[in-house]
Amino acid sequence: MSENAPKGEAQTVTVDIDKAVYEEIKKKAAQKRYFVKNYVNEALRMMVEKDRFLERYAPHLSLDDLQEPNVIVLKDTEKRGLVDVRVVDGELRCDVDRTTDCVHTHFAWALQEVAKLDVKRPPTAPTR
Fold first, then answer.
1. What pTM does this model have?
2. Positive or negative CA dihedral for 23, 24, 30, 36?
3. What 3-state class would DSSP assign to 118?
4. Any domain includes 13
5. Which domain holds residue 71?
6. CA-wise closest residue to 111 among 66, 56, 69, 81
């Protein structure tokens, strides 16, 4: 942490980022007309806020395991066990509640790890 930052200014830390990841971030930052530093700080801030939200929304749930290509295993302290949320026909389906619309599937959709699953874009509704 920068100990010599003037009083009232944000302190910063330096981190190592893989070159390939940096190049992707740099490209996305440019698309949004952000400096890389601002883009990274905003992305990290949003990730922290999302994690805080999930802790309030479902404090009894946490990620236990990711079994690619199609299962997220959640720990549910209310049910005192593990819950599988799996990809079925391109959607996330809860094995316990037997639905695509429950607290487990909502929680799973909010996890970054869902991007590693084989979830396909759902078909679009026909236009009129």
1. 0.75
2. negative
3. coil
4. no
5. 61-116
6. 66
